[in-house]
Amino acid sequence: MERLLPHILDLTRSQLQQLVISCGVPSYRADQLLVWIYKKLAASYTDMTDLPLSFRQKLAAETTLFTLRPLEEKVSNDSLTRKILFQLDDQKTIETTLMEYEKRDSSRERRTVCVSSQVGCQVGCSFCATGQQGFERNLRPGEILEQILYFMRLVQTGTSPGLIQIERRPVTNVVFMGMGEPLANYDNVLQTIVMLNAKYGAGLGARQITLSTSGLVPQINRLISENLHVELAVSLHAANDTLRNRLVPINKKYPLSQLVQACREYFAKTGRRPTFEYALFQGVNDSLDQARELARLVSGLNCSVNLILGNPTSCSEFHSSSMRQALNFQKELTSNGITNTIRVSKGTDIDAGCGQLKSRWIKNDSPLSNPEIK
After folding, report:
1. What is the rounded CA–CA span in Å between residue 242 and residue 170?
2. From CA 122, how far away is CA 30, in angstroms rounded?
3. How far apart are CA 25 and CA 20, in angstroms?
């Protein structure tokens, strides 16, 4: 088996400094590398022209900078959503999506990258295309960061099919809502967010990074103590344990009473208001009684609810609710004092929901596993 070279993007700042010193150059060259990677968006070591040639040649020979290879891409009819299936260096595949939002009135321009954190997913949500694929492995920090850098370069070079007039930065937001359960890959995701937050990295601040979870309570509690600028989104999708056990199996281990309490503590100790994601499926979780049940569940918690029209998958049990039903559900939440919004669906014409593009690449007899999440 071919030996894989160390991936530069897998390294923390201090690890990169150690690598630079081992190459026989001063440690400050590490920060120059970071500027080239995250600010100037260099595509190769060759582009890093203020670094000594011998240093660049050594890096090229002994490390890897970028490894993702695009296999397939789909662009929405309005050209504002692009989804790419990437191949990793071990031939496994993941999906990443760029969503561009037209600037209106006083709103700022937004270009959001939805990243994957795992190959497949351990949670196994019955309505999710990724959940139906099983789990293969966690992504390394560099594999997550490279998804973002790929689209940063794409937008900056003007080859994005959507908004190419950059007013501030190529990517304004990152959401961990792609393939996988981010908190099941806690350490690698944490390292990624540190690099995204840091001034020496991507420099994304509060409200620009959203970490989504299906409800891993111990990791939410651990997240409270981290010094991170990140928003927390919880994929809820049901307001009682019986239904949520079916839709989101991790609920059997961490039921709603524990999950909501963890969210209350998260807000109390961080001051950051959690968001509950609620995908609406016709006849499954979209009745007015269920809206009232949801309102009771989160009552008294400083939070917001994002209502989403569910994405269709190969599972015939789940069909997206109508916009009319979503509006009725929203009206019921509002009348019960729950802050909420109906999230704009992006890329529905290109199957941009989590795991839908990769599903077409997986053979029916692929031997995937589902180890227990801890």
Report:
1. 43
2. 36
3. 6
The answer to whether residue 354 is catalytic is: yes
pLDDT at 374 over 80: no
- The Cα angle at residue 353 between residues 347 and 356, in degrees rounded to 5: 115
Q: Which long-range contacts (CB under 8 A, 24 or more apart) does 86-89 make?
A: 86/147, 86/150, 88/119, 88/139, 88/143, 89/4, 89/64
SS3 95: strand
3-state secondary structure of 123: coil
Q: Output the six-digit token pair for 89.
A: 């260096």
Which pair of structure tokens corresponds to residue 54? 């011998």
Tokens representing 214 are 């299906």
CATH number attached to the domain at 8-62: 1.10.150.530
pLDDT digits (tens, 9 = 90+) for 172-185: 999 999 999 999 99
Which of 23, 73, 95, 125 is an active site residue? 95
Query: Is 109 a residue of the active site?
Result: no
Cβ atoms of residues 278 and 336 within 8 Å? no
Domain locations in the chain? 8-62, 69-359
| DSSP reduced 3-state for 301 | coil
Q: Single out the catalytic residue among 114, 121, 128, 354.
A: 354
If we measure between CA atoms, which residue out of 180, 181, 237, 174 comes closest to residue 210?
Answer: 174
pTM equals: 0.90
Question: How far is Cα 365 from Cα 342, in angstroms, rounded to an integer?
Answer: 38
Q: 81-87 and 69-75 as β-strands: parallel, antiparallel, unpaired? A: antiparallel
Within 10 angstroms of residue 56's Cβ, the number of other Cβ atoms is: 17
* CATH number, domain 69-359, options 3.20.20.70, 3.30.2170.10, 3.40.640.10, 3.30.2350.10: 3.20.20.70
The predicted-structure confidence for 267-294, as pLDDT tens digits, reads as follows 999 999 999 999 999 999 999 999 999 9
Indicate the residue type of 221: N
Tokens of 21: 């010193």
